[in-house]
Amino acid sequence: MNMRKFRGILAFLILLAACNNADVTRYVDPNIGGVAPLLTTKAPTVNRPHSMARVFPVTKPGLGDRYLSDKIYGFAINMPAYRNGHVTSLMPVPGEVTFDADAIASSYDHDLEEVHPWKHSVLLEDHDVIAEWTTTERAVIYRFVFHKKEQSNIIFRSNGQASFRIINENSVAGWEESKDTRQYFYAEFSVPFSSGGLFNGSEKLTGNEISGRRTGVFVSFPDLKKPVEVRIGISYIDEAQAKDNMNREMSGKTFERISDESYRIWKDALDRIYVEGGTERQLRIFYTSFYRGLERMVNISEYGRYFSGYDKQVHSDNGRPFYVDDWLWDTFRSHHPLLYIIEPGRQVDMVQSYVNMYEQSGWMPTFPQFYGDFPAMIGFHSAALIWDTYQKGGTAFDVEKAYEGLKKNAMSGTMLPWRAGPMCALDSFYIQNGWYPALPEGAQETEPMVDGFEKRQAVAVTLEHSYDDWCLAQLAKALGKDEDYEYFSKRAQNYRNVYNPATGFMSPKMADGNWVEPFDPKLSGGVGARMYYAENNSYIWNFSVMHDIPSLIEMMGGNQTFIDRLDNLFNEPTRIAKWQFMGQFPDASGLNGMFPAGNEPSFHVPYLYNYAGAPWKTQRRIREVMEMWFDDDPLGLSGDEDGGALCSWYVFSAMGFYPVTPGNGLYAIGSPFFKKVTIKLPDGKTFTIKADNVSKRNKYIQSAKLNGKPLDRAWISHQEITQGGNLVFVMGDRPNKQWADDPSVFMKLTDIR
């Protein structure tokens, strides 16, 4: 080999290595989704994956669209609960000390900020202060550069009941309550402060300690010659633990080193799914979505101990992290299945955390938070999380205790929306009759436990619990509990009781067995149709039978009728003015006809064409939704990003598959976005998805091979992914209507009758 040829090969290999190690973190933009189409927006959160410390700028109070705020009012010490504000903030302020939050707020410009998952910096224009911050797992470090030649101050402020204490010229500490649970902090300054004080409201006070609402502490530096750093440890246990967390994670480390460590952690995490091909826009949406999905659940173990909001006690973690902060109605659908592929061990620890919560509180939680359970939405989807994890091989948790808790929820817990605790009369009716009884519109509520806004949601409750009972039945079968299996399998069929064959809609049924009349499947039920459904109308809830899709198709009249119903869903007009419709259904964001791309009950629906023998229509719909309702700017999310669920849906769909039924171990195939996706599995194996000729036009699958063998089915199994291999698609601009067009394959695999 001559030297020129050798150099050419070497250059190619170097280039190849560089391509294979491209830094995907550059595609992450935490400001994507900073403006919401209708409901809730996202904050540009700095954190490490699953870490307790999560911080962001505090912007205009009450302004939901955070990105639109032109002022910063402070910086969070931490966000204890996802998307639910912060506890305690601090603000650098030059000049005379004042405690008016509006007076010390500062303008800022997004064009002058640098924002990443591991570090954020911004210029406070009115103060001429550069603020930047980074985090560890249980601590945050802020660095402030004051440019004005006058006194420099840092003000700590509480929102609720709090306590602050000046310890010495370098340290302050305190706590603030949130939902009757305290978060402690310990703050240490890199430069001794010359003076400090306390305040209550707008009143400046002397002394070293204060307690109460809207209180705070300030420290002052008369002549700063260099940046001042504030290192803050947080804890749910006590102040001493907050200090220990800070020292363990930050002692002897510079700001740059901590930031670099966080960057490398994020790079390693995001590299677990390596994407090649695609546009800059697609890559930015994909990796920002992946980042959002890695925020939660949150590990609140603090070096061998954790505080549990479920019994208000401090526990030993016995060497196993304790996780909280999960919006399970949302996350069981896409977020948890994604986590299990890339970090199954962590997911099993999350499941054990659910078991611990049950042991400590007496109920399996629905939306577990740091302060205890948040009884939100409907269903007991812990059954879906636990069964999906177990059947995929994640069995290293107390399965019997988990089953005990799930069965208690199913047999003794209330099914009422946004409620927790023992059964009411409506729940007893359900167990005896097999549907949740509805009331006609305008009728007086008879059950005092029903929430005045959330109502009964009778049809949605029946549908969601049917699925959860199916999950519980499968777990019972796996554990050899045959009688329970038969019982819950029968309850899993309760969805049939709310299908009205005369109208073809899942419809509200009264206690006497008669259908509610008059009934409009589009508009009945009040705001969010909450008398009968959850957040959306019957058009989308018609398809919420994830565990028995073959029977649903049969009930609706067979494959072609089912396909026609799906087509109609995506094309059905609002009938009333769109602004009126959205006023009634604000959760129906990303609206295609009656299909709301941004709301959870819709996530699986575009994939249902696969089950009726028309996967090419799934391919078309998926691309349509993804191209139309996701973008790489502040308006880039089609709806609420509820706990990682919406973003995880995007990650799955961009890769080319989706878990329609968590608990059956199958993923329906959609339309891959990228030329190549490499999933790096925990055991060192990889699963690669290739899409030859893929483009915006070439969205239709022409043929497929799995590990070199022809694949003529519109699904892959979890086992096929986790054992490693290659899935190769050939894409084209015209649908191949013969590819995977035999629905009997799905029928055999998903039939539970």
Please provide a written account of the structure.
This protein is α+β, with helices and mostly antiparallel strands and 753 residues long. It has a nine-stranded antiparallel beta sheet. Strands 3, 4, 5, 6, 11, 15, 16 and 18 form an eight-stranded antiparallel beta sheet that branches. The chain has a six-stranded mixed beta sheet with strand order 20-33-34-38-35-36. It is built from 21 helices and 38 strands. The radius of gyration is 27 Å and the shape is globular.
Oligomer: single chain
Under the CATH scheme, which architecture of the largest domain would be assigned?
Answer: Alpha/alpha barrel
Helix percentage range: 25-40%
What gyration radius follows from the Cα positions, in whole Å? 27 Å
Distance between the termini: 67 Å
Average pLDDT across residues? Answer: 95
Shape by Cα distribution: globular
The number of domains is 2
- Total number of β-strand segments? 38
Q: What's the story with the biggest beta sheet?
A: 9 strands, antiparallel
Q: Residue ranges: pLDDT <50 for 5 or more in a row?
A: 6-20
Helix-strand blueprint:
Elements (H helix, E strand, L loop, with lengths): L2 H18 L25 E2 L6 E2 L1 E3 L11 E8 L8 E8 L6 H4 L1 E2 L6 E2 L3 E6 L4 E7 L3 E8 L5 E6 L3 E8 L2 E8 L2 E9 L5 E6 L2 E3 L3 E5 L1 E7 L6 E8 L3 H12 L4 H16 L2 E4 L3 H14 L4 E2 L5 E4 L4 E4 L6 E2 L3 H4 L3 H8 L1 H18 L6 E2 L2 E2 L8 H10 L7 H14 L12 H9 L24 H21 L3 H10 L7 E2 L4 E2 L31 H4 L7 H7 L3 H11 L8 H7 L6 E2 L2 E2 L18 H15 L15 H11 L1 E2 L7 E4 L6 E5 L5 E7 L7 E7 L2 E2 L4 E3 H5 L2 E8 L11 H7 L3
Parallel strand pairs: 34-38
Antiparallel strand pairs: 1-2, 3-4, 4-5, 4-6, 5-11, 7-8, 8-9, 9-10, 10-19, 11-18, 12-13, 12-17, 13-14, 14-19, 15-16, 15-18, 20-33, 21-24, 22-23, 25-26, 27-28, 29-30, 31-32, 32-37, 33-34, 35-36, 35-38
